[in-house]
Design a protein that fits this description.
With 171 residues, the protein is mostly helical. Helix content is 50%, strand content 12%. It has helices at 15-22, 50-62, 66-75, 82-89, 93-105, 125-152, 158-163; strands spanning 35-37, 43-45, 80-81, 109-114, 117-122. A hairpin with a 5-residue loop joins strand 1 (35-37) and strand 2. Helix 3 packs across helix 6 (125-152) and helix 4 packs across helix 5.
Length: 171
């Protein structure tokens, strides 16, 4: 699908690009990138690119909906028709189309029309890989927090803790 005119364009981001803009992964040659001096006075390549950072931020904002994340995971298995997507996610066809339009505007999915039916697929399989990595990181974090909670309350049986409703915290 060709890039559309307007505020959004289609781009390709590799998982390595996402990872390297989030974390320092080791020394690299300068290649014209900005460098800064660390606490020890040594020059360090921060590996950041303002353009990539802006694109990454826009992409992550487009995924700021649980429905859209679920769409990405669903489409990771392959192309799907809008009706199938709506049924799998228990959404109306209108709501599904709106969520798909947002992902299409961000360049994450593309649709192909066959008569009255539209089939959607991911523009790049690495999108699903990146979402899977984030999900795995969240699961690991939740497991650590669960172990911390269990260690902090050894006297509370798990069934008693699960039966209590959560209370709202006000500040």
């Amino acid at each position: 699908m060709a890039p559309r005119n307007g505020p959004f364009v289609t781009w390709r981001i590799d998982v390595l690009d996402i990872y390297s803009s989030c974390a320092y992964i080791g020394p690299r040659s300068n290649n014209g990138k900005q460098q800064q001096t660390g606490a020890t006075g040594q020059t360090v390549d921060n590996g950041f690119s303002e353009e990539i950072d802006a694109i990454q931020a826009a992409t992550l904002r487009s995924l700021a909906s649980a429905h859209r994340v679920r769409l990405i995971h669903l489409l990771s298995a392959g192309p799907r028709d809008v009706r199938d997507i709506a049924a799998a996610l228990h959404l109306s066809q209108t709501a599904t189309s709106q969520q798909l339009a947002a992902l299409r505007s961000a360049g994450l999915v593309e649709g192909s029309r066959d008569g009255r039916s539209v089939t959607y697929q991911l523009t790049d399989p690495d999108i699903a890989v990146a979402c899977g990595l984030m999900r795995a990181a969240l699961v690991h974090r939740l497991m650590r927090l669960g172990r911390l909670a269990a260690a902090a309350a050894p006297d509370v049986p798990p069934s008693a803790a699960a039966s209590k409703p959560l209370e709202a915290v006000t500040r």
